[in-house]
Design goal:
By secondary structure, this protein is α+β, with helices and mostly antiparallel strands. Helices cover 47% and strands 11% of the residues. The chain contains 16 helices and five strands.
């Protein structure tokens, strides 16, 4: 939602942003479903002006009038029932994350809210930090919905030491992915990581477009990164809870690390992220070597330099 005119919302009703987001989101979802996939005849053949479904075809599949669907796609979200949302979600083949995102957008377009706010700095409770510190053999972090690293244990800071080279605090996964030239080397699947990062920020923006720090971040990335702008325009959303991260650490080399995320129920907007390695694997050996290296190095001092150290230096610390 950032990146539009007057990004701070001082001179307009911010609900207009939600209406524009609804139009663009539903438009991109329509474009990816063909009439054949939906079980409809492709009237018009080669003369069709759209690659996906027309509005009237979505309305037919959802069991509503084309006029009603057109009003909804234009952001007129007043009084939309759950059954209508379910029908549209089924017609457009939305997954659960996309369906929730649409509900978030409709809610934002249909309610009156105060102007964008700059929320208080998120704090990690001491008890949560104690949990992180107790996980001595597991890199662990607390992230915000904006993908900022709010807290980490010592091995986590060592694993993500390249992110700490940016003086901006808290360290930002999103800023690193799109603005740091070392990111494509650190993330061996950079393109996938970039897509996931944008999709998670898009979902977060749907949940809370009034978060000034989030809109500032999106505005900065939109201004400075063509890669971000292109992905942001796709309107993809995702919640990334588990998977495999393929990294190249400047000290210990390649690591293939399964990860899990867990929401912190008592701390809205925060979640715990942990990385592990398969037992007796090369990645486990590299993680053990990284732990040994981290025990003798100050991560911030290391991250402030651009010189990469080798695995040999981890075995013979200064």
């Amino acid at each position: 939602m950032a990146g539009r005119n007057d990004p701070y919302g001082t001179n307009r009703d911010i609900r207009d942003d939600f209406r524009a987001e609804i139009r663009e989101f539903l438009g991109t979802r329509r474009a990816r479903v063909t009439p054949e996939q939906a079980g409809l005849p492709a009237y018009g053949g080669d003369r069709r002006r759209v690659t996906g479904l027309r509005r009237e075809e979505v309305a037919l599949l959802a069991g509503i009038s084309s006029e009603y669907y057109t009003r909804l796609e234009r952001g007129n979200a007043t009084g939309v029932s759950e059954s209508v949302i379910d029908g549209i979600a089924q017609a457009l083949r939305l997954d659960e994350v996309e369906r929730i995102h649409l509900l978030d957008l409709l809610r934002g377009a249909g309610t009156t809210r105060p102007p964008r706010r700059r929320p208080a700095q998120q704090r990690v409770r001491p008890a949560v930090q104690h949990v992180l510190d107790s996980m001595t053999r597991t890199p662990a972090f607390v992230l915000s919905g904006r993908l900022d690293i709010l807290a980490a244990n010592h091995l986590g800071r060592a694993l993500f030491s390249p992110l700490y080279g940016d003086p901006v605090r808290p360290p930002s996964n999103a800023r690193f992915v799109f603005l740091d030239p070392h990111a494509p080397e650190f993330f061996r699947d950079w393109d996938e990581v970039a897509n996931d990062t944008v999709a998670m920020l898009r979902a977060e923006a749907g949940r809370d477009a009034y978060d000034r720090r989030l809109t500032d971040l999106i505005g900065e990335l939109s201004t400075r990164s063509e890669e971000f702008r292109r992905r942001w325009a796709a309107h993809n959303v995702r919640i990334h809870t588990t998977g495999l991260k393929r990294l190249h650490h400047p000290v210990v080399g390649d690591l293939d690390l399964p990860f899990e995320t867990f929401p912190l129920g008592a701390d809205a907007g925060q979640f715990l992220l942990t990385y592990t390695a398969e037992p007796a694997s090369r990645s486990q050996d590299a993680l053990n070597l990284l732990a040994s290296w981290a025990a003798t190095h100050h991560i911030d001092e290391y991250a402030s330099t651009n010189d990469s150290e080798s695995a040999e230096s981890a075995e013979t610390p200064d």
